[in-house]
UniProtKB/TrEMBL annotation:
Keyword check for Lipid metabolism: no
Keyword vocabulary terms for this entry: Repeat
Protein name as it appears in the record: WSCD1 protein
GO molecular function: sulfotransferase activity
Pfam family, one: Sulfotransfer_1
SMART domains tied to this protein: WSC
Domain (WSC): residue spans on this chain: 142-234, 245-342
Gene of this entry: Wscd1
Family that this chain belongs to: Belongs to the WSCD family.
Coiled coil, from the record: none
InterPro entries in UniProt: P-loop_NTPase, Sialate-O-sulfotransferase, Sulfotransferase_dom, WSC_carb-bd
Taxonomy, superkingdom: Eukaryota
Record-linked PROSITE patterns: WSC (PS51212)
Organism per entry: Prunella fulvescens (Brown accentor)
Amino acid sequence: MAKAFFRLQKFLRRIQFLLFFLTAAYLMAGSLLLLQRTRLVLQQGSRGTPTNQALPVQEEVSRVGIIDPRTLQNPRPGPRLLVGMDALQEPALDQRHSPQWLMSRNSELRQLRRRWFHRFTSEQEPLQTAGSKAMKHTAEHKGTYMGCFTHDSRERTLKGAVFYDLRKMTVAHCQEACAERAYSYAGLAYGAECYCGNTLPAAAAKPEQCNSECKGEKGSVCGGVNRLSVYSVQQLRAGARPRRNVIYRGCFRAPENLTDTFPVSLIQPNLTVEMCSEFCSKKEFPLAVIRGQGCYCGYPTRHFSLREGTDGRHCSGSHNASSAAGGEYCLVYQTPVQDTRCTDRKFLTTKSKVFVALSSFPGAGNTWARHLIEHATGYYTGSYYFDGALYNKGFKGEKDHWRSRRTICVKTHESGKTEIEMFDSAILLIRNPYKSLMAEFNRKYAGHLGYATDRNWKSKEWPDFVNSYASWWASHVLEWLKYGKHLLIVHYEDLKQSLIPKLKEMVEFLNVTVTEDRLLCVENNRDGNFKRSGAKQKNFEPFTQEMKDLINRYILTVDEALRGRNFSGLPREYVPR
């Protein structure tokens, strides 16, 4: 009995010791976790700035017009550490606008811009993914479903307009868009791509192969991988609001042999622009050329490049076909049909050995340059950021990780030493700061294609914006000149005026070989969907004399820095106004 009691006592002592040990371990783990969380909070609050720079956000950030929205949501008192606020203090007059001061200011403000940008992109609605539920062709679609067909992005059957919406594409939206442009068929692929045309695809596919759910309409089919769900929209055309898509390109000297230059032609007495344009649209050609009673359809080529127009008086000064000259000159119109010789794009099949940046200040035309590069090279461009609006419109490289090296180049607005030295080379796109500031202000308040309101321009936000962003325009160029390894300087104005020569330089810099016809196709589609539309701001001067003096000093600083690196200086139109 005594022996059993002894064993029980020994067992209880062991349990007591074990419980004590577990309790101590639990308390130690909790203490360590609490200390670690406290350390992280301190690091997040003081990252990148000494403690003597702690300033209240609402009081100091308002000087530059950048307010952290979290301050408005959480108005509790107490200072919030802000990076780089010492840059807002007035420097000595002899140091202000010097390259060193500009780069220092840029480094300090960069954290603010990143915080604002990541907040902005985080507000983008998440992209919807296709479900695995059974889908059907709902009866509410007004067009007639023609079936599932094969789709080749390089040799498209539906050669008309193309639309992308990787978030809100529906069958009805695609049908209406094609009907408004007077097409007979609308085809959908990959759940988000819409193609218009006048010829039904010849190669049919199995119905079950069109299995991609529409991104904006659950339960509806929008084609599949290399498959088109095709609808006839002829019955919708009568009630659709037609768009004036025929664009007058000008009067040109006719090629020596029109029939050799243009594959399709029509001789018609009393020929009109509408007759010729409709004929060429049905034949799915982007150009309608009129000489006398002859209508010719085709593409821009080396023999007829549309680069050198002539005085419109040679074509009788009229857009009426019957009055066009019947000899040396011809009238040229662009039909709604898209030139498809340069619309195919893909990711690089192997990782790029050279990591190339497409760098610019915001508002300098980076998106437009990406459009040109993608269509000229046939490869997607990437982005240091993620812009859902651009991804939805067909920039599929937006979703690819910017360091994947699967894209031909990577968009960036960054200008810190570390960010610059990550790239092996860069195309540095520079635009007139007056135009860049206005474009970025429009984008900030109205998106990529809209315009800020008069109220925005006349508010306190505009002068604060200029005061903060004008220095960034200058420091962005200065830092890339200082830290960039291999640079190609491209001025937006030169690219706009001499598209093909400048685009050739950019493509050669990217080490890609392209055909002349592909470049002519890019020129024919030069604007893409990136031209601002809608009512422009009223005709008033948004820049005060004080703003002009500030910007002009930055222009002179950048011009001097470019010439110091043996680059050509800024274009003449940058000269202080």
